[in-house]
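Issue: ligand-bound run for magnesium ion - logging full I/O for the record.

Environment: standard queue, default settings, no custom constraints.

Inputs:
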Amino acid sequence: MSAAELGPTLLDAPTIAARLDALAGEITAFYEGKPLTVLAILNGSLVFAADLLRRIPLALRLECLGVASYHGGLASSGAVTFLQSGLPDVAGRHVLILDDILDTGCTLAAIRQRLLAEAAPLSVRVAVLLRKNKPRAQPLDADYVGFDLDDVFVVGYGLDHQGHYRNLPEVRMLDSKIRKPGNQE
Ligand code: IMP
Ligand code: MG
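Outputs:
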Protein backbone atom coordinates (compact mmCIF):
# COMPACT_ATOMS: atom_id res chain seq x y z
CA MET A 1 0.00 0.00 0.00
CA SER A 2 1.85 3.09 -1.15
CA ALA A 3 1.25 6.45 -2.76
CA ALA A 4 2.37 4.83 -6.04
CA GLU A 5 -1.20 3.52 -6.22
CA LEU A 6 -2.62 7.00 -6.53
CA GLY A 7 -3.84 8.39 -9.84
CA PRO A 8 -4.82 11.94 -10.79
CA THR A 9 -6.71 14.35 -8.56
CA LEU A 10 -10.33 14.71 -9.66
CA LEU A 11 -11.50 17.21 -7.03
CA ASP A 12 -9.10 19.42 -5.13
CA ALA A 13 -9.80 20.87 -1.69
CA PRO A 14 -10.90 24.36 -2.85
CA THR A 15 -13.30 22.81 -5.39
CA ILE A 16 -14.85 20.63 -2.70
CA ALA A 17 -15.11 23.54 -0.27
CA ALA A 18 -16.91 25.74 -2.82
CA ARG A 19 -19.42 22.99 -3.60
CA LEU A 20 -20.08 22.39 0.10
CA ASP A 21 -20.95 26.06 0.53
CA ALA A 22 -23.68 25.70 -2.10
CA LEU A 23 -24.93 22.36 -0.80
CA ALA A 24 -25.10 23.63 2.77
CA GLY A 25 -27.11 26.63 1.61
CA GLU A 26 -29.68 24.39 -0.10
CA ILE A 27 -29.93 22.09 2.91
CA THR A 28 -30.26 24.99 5.34
CA ALA A 29 -33.06 26.56 3.32
CA PHE A 30 -34.96 23.28 3.07
CA TYR A 31 -34.78 22.30 6.77
CA GLU A 32 -35.17 25.76 8.32
CA GLY A 33 -37.68 25.48 11.18
CA LYS A 34 -37.94 21.68 10.96
CA PRO A 35 -36.70 19.16 13.55
CA LEU A 36 -33.66 17.70 11.75
CA THR A 37 -31.44 14.75 12.60
CA VAL A 38 -28.41 14.25 10.39
CA LEU A 39 -27.37 10.61 10.19
CA ALA A 40 -23.74 10.25 9.14
CA ILE A 41 -22.78 6.85 7.78
CA LEU A 42 -19.43 5.65 9.13
CA ASN A 43 -16.66 5.61 8.18
CA GLY A 44 -16.82 7.10 4.69
CA SER A 45 -18.90 10.20 5.42
CA LEU A 46 -16.81 11.44 8.36
CA VAL A 47 -14.83 14.10 6.53
CA PHE A 48 -17.77 15.20 4.35
CA ALA A 49 -20.05 15.40 7.40
CA ALA A 50 -17.57 17.42 9.46
CA ASP A 51 -17.08 19.98 6.71
CA LEU A 52 -20.71 20.15 5.59
CA LEU A 53 -22.30 20.41 9.03
CA ARG A 54 -20.13 23.33 10.06
CA ARG A 55 -21.70 25.26 7.19
CA ILE A 56 -25.30 24.55 8.32
CA PRO A 57 -26.42 26.98 11.05
CA LEU A 58 -29.51 25.00 12.14
CA ALA A 59 -30.39 23.44 15.50
CA LEU A 60 -29.84 19.94 14.16
CA ARG A 61 -28.93 16.73 15.94
CA LEU A 62 -26.11 14.50 14.72
CA GLU A 63 -26.20 10.70 14.89
CA CYS A 64 -23.82 8.19 13.36
CA LEU A 65 -24.49 4.74 11.96
CA GLY A 66 -21.85 2.13 11.26
CA VAL A 67 -22.47 -0.13 8.30
CA ALA A 68 -20.20 -2.44 6.34
CA SER A 69 -21.10 -2.80 2.71
CA TYR A 70 -17.80 -2.93 0.95
CA HIS A 71 -15.53 -5.73 1.86
CA GLY A 72 -12.12 -4.46 0.90
CA GLY A 73 -12.17 -4.86 -2.88
CA LEU A 74 -13.07 -2.48 -5.65
CA ALA A 75 -16.59 -3.76 -6.24
CA SER A 76 -19.51 -3.46 -3.86
CA SER A 77 -20.62 -6.75 -2.35
CA GLY A 78 -24.30 -5.77 -2.33
CA ALA A 79 -24.74 -7.10 1.21
CA VAL A 80 -25.18 -4.48 3.95
CA THR A 81 -24.31 -5.27 7.57
CA PHE A 82 -25.46 -2.94 10.37
CA LEU A 83 -22.63 -2.77 12.90
CA GLN A 84 -24.89 -1.86 15.81
CA SER A 85 -28.24 -3.41 16.58
CA GLY A 86 -30.28 -0.29 17.36
CA LEU A 87 -31.20 2.79 15.35
CA PRO A 88 -31.08 6.36 16.67
CA ASP A 89 -34.34 7.79 18.01
CA VAL A 90 -35.66 9.82 15.09
CA ALA A 91 -39.39 9.45 15.70
CA GLY A 92 -41.11 12.70 14.72
CA ARG A 93 -37.95 14.11 13.15
CA HIS A 94 -36.76 14.66 9.60
CA VAL A 95 -33.67 12.60 8.77
CA LEU A 96 -30.92 13.58 6.36
CA ILE A 97 -28.58 10.66 5.68
CA LEU A 98 -25.02 11.63 4.73
CA ASP A 99 -22.76 9.25 2.87
CA ASP A 100 -19.57 9.51 0.91
CA ILE A 101 -20.67 8.00 -2.39
CA LEU A 102 -23.70 6.59 -4.17
CA ASP A 103 -22.42 3.57 -6.08
CA THR A 104 -24.77 0.58 -6.41
CA GLY A 105 -27.28 2.21 -4.03
CA CYS A 106 -27.46 -0.94 -1.87
CA THR A 107 -26.14 0.72 1.30
CA LEU A 108 -28.39 3.76 1.24
CA ALA A 109 -31.43 1.77 0.16
CA ALA A 110 -30.98 -0.64 3.08
CA ILE A 111 -30.54 2.18 5.58
CA ARG A 112 -33.50 4.16 4.31
CA GLN A 113 -35.71 1.08 4.27
CA ARG A 114 -34.79 0.17 7.85
CA LEU A 115 -35.35 3.71 9.12
CA LEU A 116 -38.76 3.92 7.49
CA ALA A 117 -39.77 0.48 8.77
CA GLU A 118 -38.51 0.82 12.34
CA ALA A 119 -37.83 4.42 13.37
CA ALA A 120 -40.91 6.49 12.40
CA PRO A 121 -39.09 9.50 10.92
CA LEU A 122 -41.13 12.35 9.41
CA SER A 123 -39.05 12.09 6.25
CA VAL A 124 -35.80 10.62 4.97
CA ARG A 125 -33.57 12.39 2.46
CA VAL A 126 -30.08 11.55 1.26
CA ALA A 127 -26.99 13.69 0.68
CA VAL A 128 -23.83 12.29 -0.88
CA LEU A 129 -20.53 13.89 -1.75
CA LEU A 130 -20.22 11.80 -4.92
CA ARG A 131 -22.61 10.01 -7.24
CA LYS A 132 -21.29 7.49 -9.75
CA ASN A 133 -22.81 7.63 -13.20
CA LYS A 134 -23.90 4.01 -13.59
CA PRO A 135 -27.03 1.85 -13.33
CA ARG A 136 -28.01 1.21 -9.69
CA ALA A 137 -28.77 -2.19 -8.18
CA GLN A 138 -31.39 -0.45 -6.03
CA PRO A 139 -33.83 2.26 -7.13
CA LEU A 140 -32.37 5.02 -5.02
CA ASP A 141 -31.24 8.54 -5.87
CA ALA A 142 -29.77 11.22 -3.68
CA ASP A 143 -31.57 14.49 -2.93
CA TYR A 144 -28.29 16.39 -2.58
CA VAL A 145 -25.20 15.53 -4.64
CA GLY A 146 -21.80 17.18 -4.37
CA PHE A 147 -20.38 15.92 -7.66
CA ASP A 148 -21.29 13.43 -10.37
CA LEU A 149 -18.50 11.10 -11.33
CA ASP A 150 -17.75 8.47 -13.98
CA ASP A 151 -17.68 4.88 -12.78
CA VAL A 152 -14.10 4.96 -11.52
CA PHE A 153 -12.67 4.03 -8.14
CA VAL A 154 -11.75 7.05 -6.06
CA VAL A 155 -10.09 7.66 -2.70
CA GLY A 156 -9.54 10.57 -0.34
CA TYR A 157 -11.74 13.02 1.55
CA GLY A 158 -13.16 10.12 3.58
CA LEU A 159 -13.13 7.46 0.86
CA ASP A 160 -10.80 4.51 1.30
CA HIS A 161 -9.16 1.65 -0.51
CA GLN A 162 -8.68 -1.16 2.00
CA GLY A 163 -8.76 1.34 4.85
CA HIS A 164 -6.20 3.75 3.39
CA TYR A 165 -6.32 7.30 2.02
CA ARG A 166 -9.36 8.59 3.94
CA ASN A 167 -7.25 11.49 5.20
CA LEU A 168 -6.27 12.88 1.78
CA PRO A 169 -7.70 16.41 1.47
CA GLU A 170 -8.63 15.82 -2.19
CA VAL A 171 -10.51 13.12 -4.15
CA ARG A 172 -8.18 11.12 -6.40
CA MET A 173 -8.44 8.14 -8.70
CA LEU A 174 -6.57 4.98 -7.90
CA ASP A 175 -3.93 4.18 -10.48
CA SER A 176 -5.60 2.66 -13.56
CA LYS A 177 -3.46 -0.51 -13.30
CA ILE A 178 -4.99 -1.21 -9.91
CA ARG A 179 -8.53 -0.52 -10.99
CA LYS A 180 -8.59 -3.07 -13.77
CA PRO A 181 -10.04 -6.37 -12.56
CA GLY A 182 -7.84 -9.32 -13.47
CA ASN A 183 -4.76 -7.17 -14.08
CA GLN A 184 -1.72 -9.39 -13.63
CA GLU A 185 0.95 -6.73 -13.05
P1 IMP B 1 -23.08 1.25 -2.56
O1 IMP B 1 -22.53 0.34 -3.63
O2 IMP B 1 -23.83 2.41 -3.16
O3 IMP B 1 -23.86 0.49 -1.56
O4 IMP B 1 -21.82 1.88 -1.84
C1 IMP B 1 -21.23 1.23 -0.74
C2 IMP B 1 -19.99 1.86 -0.25
O5 IMP B 1 -18.97 1.47 -1.14
C3 IMP B 1 -19.87 3.37 -0.20
O6 IMP B 1 -20.46 3.95 0.94
C4 IMP B 1 -18.35 3.49 -0.14
O7 IMP B 1 -17.90 3.31 1.19
C5 IMP B 1 -17.89 2.33 -1.01
N1 IMP B 1 -17.49 2.78 -2.34
C6 IMP B 1 -18.19 2.74 -3.49
N2 IMP B 1 -17.47 3.25 -4.50
C7 IMP B 1 -16.29 3.64 -3.96
C8 IMP B 1 -15.10 4.28 -4.51
O8 IMP B 1 -14.96 4.62 -5.69
N3 IMP B 1 -14.11 4.50 -3.60
C9 IMP B 1 -14.16 4.17 -2.30
N4 IMP B 1 -15.26 3.59 -1.75
C10 IMP B 1 -16.30 3.33 -2.58
MG1 MG C 1 -15.26 2.12 2.05
